[in-house]
Structure formats: C-alpha cells, structure tokens
Amino acid sequence: MFEKRSQVPIESRNYSTYYFVFSGLLFLGTMWAVVDEVSTRRPWKEQQKQYYALLSSKVQERVNQAAADLDSSRLVELSAQLQVAQDSMNGPTYSGLQGKYNSTLKQLIDATRDYQFAKSRGDEAYYFYKKSVREGKEDLGQKKKLDTNEAEMAAHQVVMTQLEGRRDSLFAFLNEYRLNVKTVQSQIKDLQKNTEKWETKLKRIRSASIEVKQVMMLDYDRNPFNDPKARIDRCQTCHLGWNEEVMEDAPQPYKKHPFPELLAKHNPEVFGCTPCHRGQGAALTAGFGHGEEDHYWENPLLKGKDIYASCNECHENQSSLQYGQEFTRAKRVMLESGCHGCHEIKGYADVAKIGPELNKLAHKTNPQWIYRWVKNPKDHNPHTRMPNFRLSDDQAEAVTAYLMDISSKNEFGYMKGAYAGGDAKRGKQLVEAVGCQACHVLGENTKVRELRGTSYDIAPELTRVGSKVNPDWIYDWIRNPRHYNPTTKMPNLRLSDGEAKDVVAYLVTLKDERKFTDASLNLTSAVTIKRGERTIREYGCNGCHTIQGMEKEGRVSVSLSNFGRKRVEEMDFGDTEIHHTWNDWVSNKLKNSRAFQTDRIVQKMPVFAFSDEEIALLRMFLLSETKDEPDKKYIQAFDKKQQNIETGRRVAISYNCQQCHQLEKVGGYIGATIEEAAFLPPIITGEGAKVQEPWLHEFLQSPSTVGQPNSIRPWIPTRMPTFKLTDDEIGRLTKYFLGMSNQELELRDYKSYMPDPVLLPVGKSIFTDFQCLKCHPSGNTAPKSGEASTADLAPNLTKARDRLKPEWIVEWLADPGKIQEGTRMPTFFPDGQSPLPDVLGGDARKQMMAIRDYVISIGQPARPVVSSR
Amino acid sequence: MRSSSLVVAALTFCLVGQAFAGDIVGKITFEGAAPKGSKIKMNADPVCMKAHKEPQLSQEVIVNKNGTLKNVLVYVKEGLGGKKFDVPTSKVEFDQIGCMYTPHVLGIQTGQELLVVNSDPTLHNVHSLSKDNPQFNVAQPKKGMTLSKKFDKPESFKVKCEVHTWMNAWITVFNHPFFAVTGDDGSFSLKKLPAGDYTIEAWHEKYGTQTMKVKVAATGSQTADLKFVAK
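Output (structure tokens, whole complex):
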C-alpha cells in the first residue's frame, strides 16, 4: 500500500526489528562487560588459581612423602594393639566388671538414699528435742528418736564406705582398659601427625577462596596537606607464597620470600610490601603494581640491591643495619667520601670533616708540592680521597698562595734535626710490624686496600711520602700526631725516641722518583692571595678542611635530603646524549661530576674516582634520601639502647677501629698484612659482655698494656695505639659495646668478687686435668725456641681477674665457638656434658664455675675468701 | 604349573638383581721423585716426644715402596644420579695416637657415625674446619675419651688440633658408599656399583684431583689405574 516506510503513519510503523537488534547488542554488551569485569580485567584470579594448583601439588608431594616416611610396620603393630585393646573392652571380663560396677553404683545410691532419709529424720528429731529443751519440757521421746536415727546413719555410713571402696577399685580396673585404648590411639595419632598436618593444609588450600588480599596501613602516608592517609597494599594478591615453606623454589610471583628473618621484624601482614619494595600497592596487575606500565607513578618497584634504599625511610639514624649490609656499605662510602662536607644530609649534619686541618701546612710541606697536589691530588696519591677540582694553573697558584700565607704566619714549634741517627732497615721492620699498614698503604703491599674493597684509602699512601713532607715534621708527627693537628684521627703508636728515628730514617727514603720542574709561583702578591681565598670559598675546600678565614662558611652545595625524589625534569643533562632517567643522571654525575657541563653552565663539584661498585652504592644511598617518613606507629622507636649503639658506633667509625678489629661483622682489614692468624687483633663485637667496664675504660684511655710485657699476649708485634679518647668518647664506646651485648652500663664492684672456697680447689684440679697450660702460658715470657711457637699460644690468664667479667668466663667455657666463631679454643663440655662425671656430681655448669674461680685467682695476691656469696 | 613358573621368574629376578653390580678396582701410581717428608718437631709436648723413638715424618705425601701413593681418596664423582643409599650402622673410627691422626684421610657417609678417640695421655682437640656442616672444636683432655659426630651434608674439610699444630687430617662426607682410601699398597676398590657409566675421581691433599670415566658391567670388575705426577 505504501511505497516507502516513511509513508507509513508513525503510529503504525513496526520497530520490532530495531528492538531485536539493539536489545541483542545491549545483551552482548552486558555480557562483555560482565566477562571483562569478572575475568579479563582481573588476571590475578587466574594467577591465584594457578598458585593454589601449584601449592596443592607441592603439598600433595609432602603428604605423599609423609605417608612414605610413615613407619608402616609400627602403624600395623599399633593398629593390632588398638584392636586387642578394643576387643578386650568387648570381652566378657570387661562386661562382667562393668556389670559389677553398675550394680555397686546402684547399691551405693540406695545406701546413700537410706542414709539421707535417716539423716532427715534425725534432723527433725533434733529440732523438736532442742525446742523442747529450750521451752523447759525436755521431750525424751524425741531424744530417743534422734539416737536411733544417728545409729542408723552410722550403720549406713559403714556400708557406704565399703561400697565406695569397691566402686573405686572397679573403676580403676575399667579405666585401665579405657586408658589402654587411649594410649594406643594417641600413639597412632602421633605417628600420623606429620601426614595429618599436611593433609589439613591440603584441605585448607582446596577450600581457599579466590579473593583480593589486601593490607591496609592506616595513617601510613601523608597527603600534600600533611593529613594522614592510609596506604593500601594488594601485592599479596599475586605474591601469595611469601610465607610458604614449600614454595621456596617456586617461580615468581609465588616464590617464598628469601629473608624470613627480615620479615620477622617487618611483618607483611602489618606492613604490606610497598614500604620496602615500593611500587603501586593498590594495583592488581604486575605492570601497574611494579610501575613498568605506569610511567607517571613516582614510586616504581626497587630492583636488585636498590631495594635497600628504602631502609632509610625508618632507619636514617642508623649507620649499620644488620640485615642491610649493602646499605651499611653505602652509608660508609658516603661518610668516608665526605659527601656531608658539601651537601646537607639528614642525620649526618654533625659528622666531622674528613680532611686534615691546613692552618700549619707551611711547616709540613713545600709550596711546589701543594701546587701540584691541588692541581691533581691523584697524581701524587692515586687512591687519595681528595677529588680533583680541575683547577687552572692560576687557580692552583692562588690557592697555594693563600694556604702558604695563613700557615706560615702560624707558629709551630718543633725540634729541628731531632730525627737524625735512625736506621732505615729497622724503621721498615717497625712500620710493617706495629700496625701502620692498617691505614697507610705502602708500595706494593696493597692488601689492606684490596680487602677493604674501596677505590680510596682512608689515610694517605706513604709510597712517596719522602717527597711530600720534611723529616722534622715526620719525627714530630709520629711522636705525637696531636701536636701538629689536635683533631687528627691518627693515633699515637707510642714509638720510643729510637723507634721514631728509625721510622723517619725509613720514610724519608720513600721518594717520588719522577722529576718535576718547579712551577714559577708568585705566592706573596696580595692580589693572588685574595684570589686564592675567593677560590677556596667558591669551591668549598672548607667542606673537608679546617682553613683559617673560612670558619663562617657553610656547605657550598645543595641539600640531598629529598634527592631520591628529584624528578628527571629537574635534572640538566647538558649537551650529552645520556638517557633521561634518574639513574643515568646520577651514575654519570658520580662517574664524572663535570659530565653535564656546557659552555654556559659551569660546574664546580670536583671529580671523584669511584669504582663502579661504589657508584652503585652511592646511587642507592641517594635513592634512599627522601623526605618520606611513615607515621610514628610504624617505626620502631629509636630507643635509648639504639641511640647508645649508634652514638658509640659513630665514634668507632670515626676512629677507624674496623681497620684492625672486626666489629659488627665488618673490618679487621689489617689481617691482610698479618700472616699468622693468631696475631690478628681481636674481634670486638662481643666486648661488652666480655670485659669489665673499668678495665675497658683504662685500656681505651691508655692501651699501653698491649705489646708490653704486662699484656696478655706480649709476643704480638702489632700495637693497639693510643687514640687520646676523651672520657665522653670512651663512655660512648662502652655503652655501644654493652648495647650490642644486650647489657646496660651499671656500677659494678668487680673487685669484691671472691672465689668460692669450696669450688676453688676443685677448679684448680680440673684446670690441671684439662691441661689448660698447654696453650695458656703461665708467665709472661715467650717460649724458648724449640718449644711451642708464640703463634700457638693462647692469652695469659693472670690478667683474667681484672679484665674479664666473671659470668662471661663461664659462658666462654661452655661454648667458645658460639661467642667467637672459628676460635681455636675448644669446648671441654660438648653438648653441655662434662667429661668428668665424678667431679661436683658431674654438674658441668658447676665445674665451669669452679674453673672460673680458679682462673680469676691465678697469679693474684691472695684475697680473703668468704664462705658464701 | 603357573605358580611354579612365577617362583622361578622371581628367583631369576633376584639373582640377576644381585648380579647387576660390578666393582671398580685399581691402584694410584706416582711418577717422579718423591718429596722428602719433613720431620715433625714434637718438642712442644713431652708426651708426644715420648710416644715415638724416631722423629715422625709429615703425612702429606707418602709414596709406597711399590711406587704407589698412599692416602688418596678415590670416589664416584658422577653417574649415580639421585639414588639414595642406606646409612651403614658401622662406625668410622678416627684415632689420635702418638700425637698423629689415624687415618690421615678418611671418607664417611652422611648420617654415619664418626667416632673420635683419644689414645694419648695428653690434651688433644679436634677442630673441624667444615663449611656446610656445623663446625665443632672439642677438647679431649684424657686418654680413652671418645666423641661421636654425624654429618648431614656432603663436603670435604680439614680437621686440626690446636694444641699440636702439626696434627691435621682430611674428612670427606659422601651421600653414597662408593669411596675408598689407598693404603700401603696404593690399591683401592669400589664395590658393588650398579651397572652403568661413572666418573671416578682421585683426590690427594697436595696433588689435587685426577678423574677417569669407567663403564661398570653387570658382572665382574673393572680396572681403573690413576696416576699422580710429582710437582
């Protein structure tokens, strides 16, 4: 009728086709949305399924293993026993006993009831009788009734006691049957415990639900307005196996965390994962969570050793972390390189300058040497910590002029010519023996540097020292370093006059063989001097050196406090083609600090010579420098003990104790130059538990005892030098050692400790039996030739009383290897058992105490013993 | 009829199963001039001095009269796969006698008991310098004292006495029973090896290691002679 659809009246048009098509599309769209939402956009669901499948297969292996390990013959045996026990409970004997027990119980109930009735009747009679007595007309009938009932009660009582006895003995019989069954059942259960454990686990895994695993850390972060804000951490949605022992060798993301001891202190159920690993906690895909797909996320996942950078968020005050040795090293490189001299670094503002004071320089060396040195320090000492400022000839001349000007005006009184008469050969032996090489590299012997693994030395190399300083100065310096520089870290080796002369005689022979033509320097012109002052100020020499006239200068460069958060857009890459990333900028800057210099932009940061490893460490350190700080409740309080440890640790670091001693598992570098292991300086990590505080104080103040005839090992050539520590510093070190041994500083009267008069003679006899003197010499004389070598001798014990803590001696005797790994001292009490069963009742602990009481009395004047303490 | 054939089959299987094992026997020869053993100075302990009339020589290199090398540890290095072996109930004795360790080189299986004995009337201590197994350092001040130790992990380590520094010995822990130490005739035998291809290794504390590939047949024994050359 109508040619075209448009001709059909609007109310008669048919829309069903449209409806059908569009509703179909809508349906498909909805279906797609559901599928996309439920599955496509939630890949973690599939991951969780895979995880549980893997986990259950691994647990199934354990179940099978447990079943295979099960002692099946024992199980059969026990099952048979159980059957016998259960059968006996069904047997006639048991049911006979049970019948008897039941009838006894019934009789007892009857007897008890009869007794109760008699008692009620008696009580009633008693009441009426008493009432009648009070009313003045005694009712003898009631009295009789009372007596009768009481007699009846007594009779029932007898029966009841008999029945109770029989009941109890029957019960004991019956119980034995039941106990038999129970014992066997529990034995079976024990046998199947392991299987059951894994089976239960398997059941739990099979019923585990697929869900987002989320840790919410309330108030963890701060928003830009400093309001607390929660951090959401969903990493464990995919990393499900972090705590599963069976997932140790599983592939990522299911693998078990490799450092459970670290997690014990940073529980991921409370802290989540992002505080250490960074990344986007709320994300549910690897790309977004780790940051590869989200370039605008400012906290990408930390990879490799960079992970340790996040330690600083909570541990910025600590320069040593037990589980973050990489980070400990990074901080050490930062401190030793003196970064804090020019840059502000939070937590390290008060650390001393690393370079020497220059105010008396003219008395130590000559202007030509200074000039060459400031032009390029590495030319004289390739491993010096001083970086190259790449000064022009003019600048170097000006700096030399200024330094000569101020230092020649300062007086320095030292004897001229006093060094003469030494023997260079003896001097060489001394330098090699007393311990100079712990800090100073000399010629070919670079072992300490290599063991230390740093590109720099912490003290000047002495290979060319004869061309640097004059002999008068060396003599004065080694006799007393603090005379020239009151703040030097160089300790006093207590060289005698003769020894000092020998050492000078040796050191002056160490010349720079190269020929230099003297530069023509104008050092007296006021203009040059003024220009030198400006240059020094401009380049910030005072960051590392104390220089007269620069006292009021601050740090010349930028603060590094939030450097880890510096954006790439804020970094200038100069004319270089270097890839624009934070890492590349930092690595290149550390490799060559002038890398980004252009003809317009002048850079002043001097050029260091860090090794690639050090660059990686410093880069990690810089990455850690952020202002991010979690809410207080997430940070372990930096309590008094921690503070004490850190304060003392910094004293130990500043005096370079670890060059000789191993401390907190780091150091002992001098060991590389000492062939005989027995002559190594002691490991001092556990010193707090070991030595008496007064002894430690005296020793640190004036360690003249070691190396001298009254020392505990006088044959050791290496000397513990005198550091002229202040009482404050000694106090800090003492608290540090005590803190590391979990002890606190307390006033103790060690002198009042008396040997027990009963134990003392026993101790002496054990001491003889154990032949302690085989290794511990009794006197202070070194053994004669042909006898044991000094290298095989243990410390002299005559000093024990005034040196060792009495309780430590006992702990040491119990297990020396536990206190000092690898010690040559054996245990005489393996597994806490004494080899002398007849002494003190075989009580190992008592025997150790007896030895201790004898040891502290060796070589000591008799003290009155007390009968008890 | 049928059951009897089954029995025969089972018996045959058992017999063949037993016979599927061969031995490796051989000797360790030494070429070159034997180094002069250094005399041990026992002056430090009079008890040790008294124990010997003649000064003792170092046990580091001992060349036997027939030109073979003593104290060489020979063992299967490769070829056993992941097979597990029973732990022997017998103990391995390690004696301190005359201020010397006897034997100087020994092998032991994981889980097997090592019995350390002091046969000297003087103080000895045994200090194991093991890395994978926990170290021990135990004193034995009296004659006749014993100490039992077991090792969980295969490794080779030195044992020394801190009192008498000349005393040292080598202990190697294996997770299989196929090892032997050469004695005064320099011979060794690795018994009852399942048929297969093996790499055997001989280790000497001074001369290092020598290896050889050996094919063990189902029956009989294979000869494998190895040679160390003086350095």
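The first strand of chain B starts at residue 21 and ends at 31.
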